[in-house]
Write the structure tokens for this entry.
Amino acid sequence: MLYCYFTMTEPRKKVLVVDDDVILRELASDVLSEDFEVQTAQDGQEGWEKARAWLPDLVITDLMMPRMHGYELCSLIKGPNGLPGIKVLVSSSKTFTTDVSQAMDAGADDYLVKPYRPAEMLERAHKLLSGALPAAAAQAPAPAAATTPSPAPAAAPGAGSRQLYVRFWGTRGSCPTCNSKVAGYGGNTACTELRIGDTLFIFDCGTGLRELGDSLAAEFKGRPLAGHIFVGHTHWDHIQGFPFFVPFYNPANTFQLYSVHGAHGGLGSIFSKSMSLDYFPIPLSSLGGRLDFVELKGPVDIGGARVTFQHMNHPGVCIGFRVETQGRIITYLSDHEPFSRLGGASELSLRQDGEIAAFARGSDLVIMEAQYTEQEYAARKGWGHGTYEDAAKLALASGARRLAITHHDPYHSDAMLDEYIEHCRSLIRKGGGATECFGAREGMRMDL
Ligand SMILES: [Zn+2]
Ligand SMILES: [Zn+2]
């Protein structure tokens, strides 16, 4: 007797893996291919395009990626103009609780910490697709309209066109401070000026930005001023000087402010909210000067310089910058807690730390945070900051010519900082490095 079995097989569900790390992307793809139809994308932008075209059942996305990060991809998929019915699993090596909650706020259905066991990835995917895990309760915020870079403003008049220097206007981290014990290094928070010929660059808008604004107003007097402001992230100590920058109020002036899309919305909306009436008497829309917000998707070329960015390990979205111009490289890395500090010496953590070092490789000047001593760090692990030893390691791994330590803890006096920076120097020497290390001080100018 002949028995015939006809089995009705359901079509395989579709999973899109979005990750800029080729090893993890291929690993996830191999594992998931056992049970699903899989496609891959190498960053959020490609992920969004493939998700719209292919309509997968599940998107598994990394957070820190070039062009578009995972929070934005998540917000786009889950937003009102998104792709209903698609589940999102965020998979990241970031272990800060802030990142987990921000990913869920952006609409993620689940969060899987890297490195993971392949079986765990497969299990999470099955659970999400069978509906066994509840979707995140929070509704995704509306995605902001894409910001288009405006044409570069006319170069500001100024000194000779070949000058290249850095000046520190704020070197303190977390909170401004003012007393006689910190006067040497200064009490204003993060703000660094870079002049390349006649082009003005500013990195971060901490309280140091106020004095930079006064200095520029005096330098340019009645002449129009244009500038390019790069903001690594929007924690208070990096934006608190923003409303006090006098040149913003002059209608003749033009500025472009660059960063990436926020975890909860557009860059412009973050700054607009920071100046809402609950926080400041003058709304952003009332600034007299022109201010364009540019959400970075890749390198930008400005005034003969190329600026690239790299995601840092800090709660929320945080990027560092590398500027290449006139055969010189300046790298700005703040705020950052090395991956191996949190993830141990795993292959993944070491590779990620290696990527940060590679980003700074060959720099004439690395401006890097070091907020804690090793002893302090033990009680502050997971706060998103590193130590003097971490800065020394970065100097050795990158082979930078100079290392400026910044983002000084508000509790560190001048005497303590002198000692800690000397310790950092000795670590570099012991490691066989030749990097010249110093503590960034308010008002300090360095020609490159
Ligand atoms: Zn900071
Ligand atoms: Zn921060």
